[in-house]
Amino acid sequence: xIAILFCLIAGDVKxxxxxxxxxxxxxxxxxxxxxxxxxxxxxxxxxATPEGPRVTLRSQWAGSYFSWTSRVEPWPDDRFFDxxxxxxxxxxxxxxxxxxxxxxxxxxxxxxGINFDTITDEQARxxxxxxxxxxxxxxxxxxxxxxxxxxxxxxxxxxxxxxDLDNCFPKTRYMAGVLNVTTLVTGHHSSRSMGTxxxxxxAEKNGMKLDSFDDYLxxxxxxxxxxxxxxxxVGLKSxxxxxxxxxxxxxxxxxxxxxFGKKPAELTEDQQKHFEDFMFWHLASLAAKYGFPFQxxxxxxxxxxxxxxxxxxxxxxxPRTKFCLFHGGYPWIGETGVLAQRFPNVWIDSNWLPQLxxxxxxxxxxxxxxxxxxxxxxxxxxxxxxxxxxxxxITTRQCLAEALAEKVIRKEIREEDAIHIxxxxxRENALEVFPSLKTMLWRKE
Length: 445
Ligand SMILES: [Zn+2]
Fold this sequence. Notes:
Helix content: 40-55%
Bound molecules: zinc ion
Number of strands: 10
CATH topology of the largest domain: TIM Barrel
Number of helices: 20
CATH class of the largest domain: Alpha Beta
Strand order of the largest sheet: 1-4-5-6-7-8-9-10
Number of domains: 2
CATH superfamily of the largest domain: Metal-dependent hydrolases
Largest sheet: 8 strands, parallel
Strand content: 5-15%
Oligomer: single chain
Structural class: alpha/beta
């Protein structure tokens, strides 16, 4: 008792029995991860080492969110790890407290026995060597994801080849995917080179003519039909927040028809926006028709114009569409909460949030649970390599357990309810929002 009191005064909920119970329970949940960016194994970005292209310690940091706020040195011309490490290591010193750095630490500690805060040059060399040898084949990453991170299914966003639906997803038993529709919104003209993410590429590959706006809408329908046919697509995803405001007006079809086929230079900003606005509403209605929940990146991207409140008219105007607001709307977590409180067709997806800002994520879980039923919150790891997926998963399990334990200690909920909520957020809610995931479950419990 004295020990527990002392720990509470000292302020670390993780030292309490309540936390330990909740954490143990959350750790055991076979998780459903609603968002990642895992490429097919042979397409993982690799560095040019003297032995050939390899996944290195540098690939891992460069492919993590650490590189958003700290410089990760490029792989050196002489191709040696030591050269890279000597240039790269000073930057970690200023990043020790950041969530973008800390979320990766569980992977180095748990798989490689290394405390990255105190890593020596010799340890860095060994760590790199072990990463290189682990990536000799895909078995390592499959084990990390399914056994160590205990993820049963992940919903993958293949932004590297969005419309090449036969080839863009890794072929593994834990894989589900989304149709990333970002390029469908902006496709008024074929001039933007988008490779296999282009609807014009899709039309050509499938021998469809694409001369008018009606042709374009028919191609979009064909893309949706293809998404159904590949059987692992369970929803839609938009990253428009990286490009423009999230305020989408309801625009008549004629305006989009007028903009279609015009080169970008021939359109005013308003005409361009109207085309995109029309398409976004159109996709929201197709989402309802096809039963695809619509995942929308909200919050930190372009920052200006990414406040989730800007989506209120779209959400209200499409009551049959399920909207999953990504990243908790960071930093607008309260705004995301009120949208979910006001509109029954909104779910909050907290993926990425514990990595963006751990403290805010913990507060967000507590505030959202005050505002909305506990079956409306989802999570995802949002990473590109198994180590990052593991780190993000551990970090989320810990953050959620801390948030719930604090509520139990304050007597706002009972421990048994906290354990139930932990299971909902890590697994059950995703199966409710994306019912087709239920047919892909494989773990025998
Ligand atoms: Zn993402």
